[in-house]
């Protein structure tokens, strides 16, 4: 039923000739995700990192797909340097800014698919969607169904690869690594399409093929 709900929204988007854009957020501090590595037997590898936990980078990813077009990946960073009163996570203004950028870069209408994060329900976000209904539509993912969002797989790809065991020299170094890794993904349309394949969803419903049987 969960997949059916998303599929229904995608069929509507396909009928409008819209881009289907999956959106998701993640974050990364100076403490890297743990990854597998090689070491001599009996010697546990140790990665020295900063003990400060306050600095953090929040990332919004927008994976946009449309039949007959190259997949596009857009993103926006929210940097928290540990200052008092500074937002630690994604804000509604970050979301609307990214959607506005997508509108300028992608020809046609957009259907954004996202979960029930509070920022997605914020008054600023709702107002933005309502005021731009001529090109923007929203489809909601079911609760507790991250497997239906290909951006989740994209985050996993980064955190088990480039970011795994990363001993960042500081917050600016971490930001540089994240930007570089995402830029590389932007030039890998095959990989971006593969993230969607991993969800089991399809951009286009399978077509029924019929053939005539010749009479003997």
Record the SSE blueprint.
Layout: H1 2-15, E1 19-29, E2 56-65, E3 72-80, H2 92-105, E4 110-114, H3 118-121, H4 123-131, E5 136-140, H5 150-159, H6 171-186, H7 189-197
Parallel strand pairs: 1-4, 4-5
Antiparallel strand pairs: 1-2, 2-3
Helix pairs in contact: 2-4, 5-7
Features:
single chain, 216 residues, alpha/beta, Nucleotidyltransferase, domain 5, 5-stranded mixed β-sheet, 5 strands, globular, disordered C terminus
Structure description:
With 216 residues, the chain is an alpha/beta fold. It has one domain: Ribonuclease H-like superfamily/Ribonuclease H (Nucleotidyltransferase, domain 5, 2-Layer Sandwich). 35% of the residues lie in helices and 19% in strands. The chain contains 7 helices and 5 strands; from the N terminus they run H-E-E-E-H-E-H-H-E-H-H-H. The chain has a 5-stranded mixed sheet with strand order 3-2-1-4-5, with helices on both faces. A hairpin with a 6-residue loop joins strand 2 and strand 3.
């Amino acid at each position: 039923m969960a997949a059916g709900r998303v599929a229904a929204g995608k069929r509507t988007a396909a009928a409008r000739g819209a881009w289907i854009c999956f959106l998701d957020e993640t974050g990364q501090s100076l403490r890297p995700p743990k990854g597998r590595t090689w070491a001599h037997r009996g010697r546990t590898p140790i990665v020295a990192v900063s003990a400060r936990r306050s600095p953090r980078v929040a990332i919004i990813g927008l994976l946009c797909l449309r039949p007959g077009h190259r997949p596009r990946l857009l993103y926006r960073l929210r940097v928290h340097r540990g200052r008092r009163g500074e937002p630690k996570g994604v804000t509604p203004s970050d979301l609307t800014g990214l959607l506005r950028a997508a509108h300028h870069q992608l020809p046609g209408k957009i259907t954004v698919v996202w979960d029930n994060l509070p920022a997605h329900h914020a008054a600023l976000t709702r107002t933005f969607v309502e005021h731009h209904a001529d090109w923007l539509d929203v489809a909601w993912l079911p609760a507790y169904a991250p497997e239906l969002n290909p951006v989740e797989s994209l985050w996993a790809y980064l955190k088990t690869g480039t970011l795994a065991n990363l001993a960042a020299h500081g917050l600016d170094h971490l930001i540089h690594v994240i930007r570089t890794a995402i830029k590389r993904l932007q030039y890998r349309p095959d990989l971006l399409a593969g993230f969607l394949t991993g969800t089991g969803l399809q951009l286009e419903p399978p077509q029924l093929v019929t053939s005539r049987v010749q009479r003997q």
